[in-house]
Design a protein that fits this description.
alpha+beta; 3 domains; 16% strand; 11 helices; Butyryl-CoA Dehydrogenase, subunit A, domain 3; 4-stranded antiparallel beta sheet; single chain; Butyryl-CoA Dehydrogenase, subunit A, domain 2; globular; Butyryl-Coa Dehydrogenase, subunit A, domain 1
Length: 396
């Protein structure tokens, strides 16, 4: 089932790219879902590189970034990334997976021409992975959803910055060629582009987590006297939170796009099962308890899609869209959790096996409700906005 918004501002170029991406993911990448190189810490780099080579050959590698460096609009990107998510391996194959997609967006917006050539260009070509070093261990009192708690420090020493601290849940750190590291100076938060591997950055361990779609898994990191040239700071000292928001608002939205695609596919699988499986003299779909769950899935999928396009439209106006991306992250992640749960329930015992991707999609969506900000943090942020807006209106 194809889910594309009927919107007169959706361009022909985006729909053409989206169609090619969908065909590639369904026909070429979906068969890889049984590949043994698809591990509990994500697809191996060997598998990822093999799939990227096929995407390059098919002309769908990094499809949201056009020749010459132009970027599709957020609205256009939605059409493409939703289709890429039709397999959990699709975003990796097409080079639109987290954290690389968000990091490419940030560098495209904010990096100098020299830093773009050094770091962004090989990422766009699918030759380099990246990691975003922001979250810190709770047992160190470090930054999680509250970045003001950041404990990692950076101090100037000659023409270098020296960084010390620990990070956690760093997706893709193992095997990455670029690290975007956040640290705190006397001026405030700072952001650095760091060549990886570096002996000053040590992977303590790669955690075993519920999700398994992203290469490199999620690592705990120690940073011990890392020296970074001043030229590799993004912007100026103290501007790190601004750059983080430039990245995070669109990144929340693109997460929603990819996982909507995955849930569309899971619902296709569950619907097929319900129409083929007989029970008590008729197909499962004819039992209201099952048929109604699939009907509710269609409603949640369509509402999630509309929220994504609504938020993308706002971001395309140039507004940072923090509140809108928070609303979308909450609404979409919660809706997709309901969809994934119903797919498992419809398929019964088959739904909890790895015979199909339904089981994996359920796990991935459960993690999605937490990363890029848990539902409760976004609700709290929106509640604070309600209070600010009320005060502003009543002080006028």
């Amino acid at each position: 089932m194809s889910f594309t918004l009927d919107n007169t501002r959706m361009t022909d170029r985006a729909l053409e790219i989206a169609d090619r991406v969908e065909n590639f993911v369904r026909e070429t990448i979906a068969p890889y879902e049984k590949d043994p190189r698809k591990t509990s810490h994500g697809p191996t780099d060997a598998l990822a590189n093999e799939m990227k080579a096929k995407a390059r050959e098919a002309g769908v590698l990094t499809p949201h970034i056009l020749e010459g460096g132009d970027h599709l609009t957020h609205l256009e990107t939605a059409a493409v990334l939703i289709r890429s998510g039709l397999s959990p391996l699709g975003p990796v194959a097409c080079n639109v997976a987290a954290p690389d997609e968000g990091n490419m967006y940030l560098l495209g917006k904010e990096a100098s021409p020299e830093l773009k050539e050094r770091f962004l260009d090989p990422m766009v070509r699918g030759e380099m992975r990246s990691a975003f070093f922001m979250t810190e261990p709770a047992d160190d009192g470090g930054a999680g959803s509250d970045p003001m708690m950041m404990q990692t420090t950076c101090k100037m020493d000659g023409n270098h910055w020296v960084i010390n601290g620990r990070k956690t849940y760093i997706t893709g750190a193992e095997g990455a060629g670029l690290g975007i590291v956040m640290a705190k100076s006397d001026d405030g938060a700072c952001m650095f582009l760091v060549d990886l591997p570096d002996p000053a950055i040590r992977i303590e361990r790669v955690m075993d987590t519920i999700d398994s779609s992203m290469p490199g898994g999620h690592a705990v990191i120690s940073i011990d006297n890392l020296r970074v040239p001043a030229s590799q700071m993004l912007g100026q000292s103290g501007e790190g939170f601004h750059y983080a928001q430039v990245r995070l608002s669109p990144a929340r939205l693109t997460h929603c796009m990819r996982w909507l695609g995955a849930c569309i596919r899971a619902n296709e699988i569950a619907s097929d099962y319900a129409n083929r499986r007989m029970a008590f003299g008729k197909p499962l779909v004819d039992h209201e308890g099952v048929g109604f769950m699939l009907a509710e899935n269609l409603i949640d999928l369509k509402q999630a899609e509309l929220m994504i396009y609504w938020c993308a439209d706002i971001l395309d106006t140039g507004v940072l869209g923090t509140a809108e991306s928070s609303m979308t992250k909450v609404a979409v992640s919660e809706a997709l959790m309901r969809v994934a749960d119903r797919c498992v329930q419809v398929m019964g015992g088959q739904g909890v096996t790895q015979d199909t991707i339904v089981e994996q999609v359920f796990r991935e969506i459960r993690a999605f409700r937490i990363y890029d900000g848990p539902t409760e943090v976004h609700k709290w942020s929106l509640a604070k906005k309600i209070k600010r807006d009320w005060r502003k209106a009543n002080e006028a």
